[in-house]
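Record pair follows.
FIRST:
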Amino acid sequence: MAENTAKEPRVINKSGTLKMTDKVAAQKETRDMSGRPMRRGNRRDRVKADAAPKEFEEVTINIDRVSRTVAGGRRMRFKALVAIGNKKNKVGVGVAKGNDVTTAVAKATAVAKKNMITFNMDGETICHEVETKVTGADVLMKPAAPGTGIIAGGVVRSIIGLTGVKNLISKSLGSTNKVNIAYAVVEGLRQQVPREQWNTTATKKAAKKEAK
């Protein structure tokens, strides 16, 4: 008795050519332009499975659209204000311009990494009260008791949130320019002096005794 062999149906494209079946396609050897067979099982995974954690966290505080008048008309660009920190005692602020938002943010991040500072802390707050002025911006920062939280405005909160400071009281007294406020906050953190180095009456007396 003859065996019943089922033939696969012939699939023809609209152009009238015979369409390759999946079984034939799986067995067919693919070659590159030079005629060499291509390897199928050695493709590199483009997505890294174990992505390394970022050393610094980034926050885009503000993006402005700026224009410059040239001979041919107005040239539009973007200005980005970016802050980075390591959630401890390192923080930096950068400002840069670019033809698009992505380029401006990338440039500002690179500037912030170059201009990072390391400041002193007293537990989870700053060491002492400080008031810093950068052009028209005037920022006042005070240490706070544990559990107070960060009592500050938008720009100050964004920058302090990238550090290890958990308790802080702040007030912006001058201009509302975000770039100047950001630089004022960084300058205030830079001026922090640990309690052991305070120039108090006790340290003055100790210095006089050592001088004698």
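SECOND:
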Amino acid sequence: MASLVLTIRETLRYRGAVGQWSWVLHRATGLGVVFFLVLHVIDTSWSVFYPELYEKALTIYQHPLFTIGEFGLVFAVVYHAFNGLRIAIFDNKPELWQYQERAAYGVLGLTVVVLIPVFIGMAGHVVAHYNKGDAFVLPLLDVIVEQLPFLAGMVIAAIGAVVLSGLYGMVAGNEKATASAKLSGSPLERFWWSFMRVSGLLIVPLVLGHLAMVHVIQGVFDITVAGFTVVGTNLVNESGTATEFVAHRWNFLVGGVAVWKLYDIALLALVTVHGFNGLRYVLTDYTMQYPILRRASMYLCAIGALILLGVGGAALLGTIGPDAIAMATEARRAILAGG
């Protein structure tokens, strides 16, 4: 914690060039995307396992508070993607580092250029939703309370990782703090360095495509509107439930292949491993001098990634049948009726 506080304090005090702020912004946006990823994968899995909970989750995410967060999320994804490309290019072409400042400004400019039409499209969905006059909004207190289980789960996971790390240290003995520095040049770490760059290149078109379809073309409010054609398919969401929306996307076949299910499998695998490994980098940076916490950071990221891959994978391999859609329909009626 002392290292983290020092980094934040000195970052605010240091009047560095754009490179410093690019580094800070890259980490901040990456952390924001990982946090959203956890919520998104768990919630979407409910469309298969708990349709009623999924309908409530989507109702919560249509609250104005989350609408503001949606704009922030899109900014985080777009900036992180473009800046990640900049990092990958310069890492593979060190001779270009003399242009890094110019490139950093270029990333900011490109982000703004892309976000202007994207935000206009997203704002159009928001205005259309609230202009209907019958927009349903959960009370803010209910929205906050519904997020407490996620927060509690993260706290419990962090405590569990520290306890597990402590038990390992008692049995195997805590290595010296300097040992972690030696690992940076290990074959495994070199693999992860390469993986982050290669996976980043693969993720960019996948994640930007997903954002375009679900946040710009379709819009998160249209997911729960009956009569809309589900984006990327020729199927209509008859019930107006989020569960049927997911079912149509995952069950849509092109040449006998569930293209959007395969798309989401690739997105889940790449983003989860990339995101949690990035989180590992951040956490271990601030725990280098504390073997127990450094080890706990690695445990937390590894376990978190495995759980997310397991939950998301199980949902993607599952099916959403008529019974699930019927349950979702009843749940949505109850929510709108205040029941």
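COMMENT: The mean pLDDT is 88.
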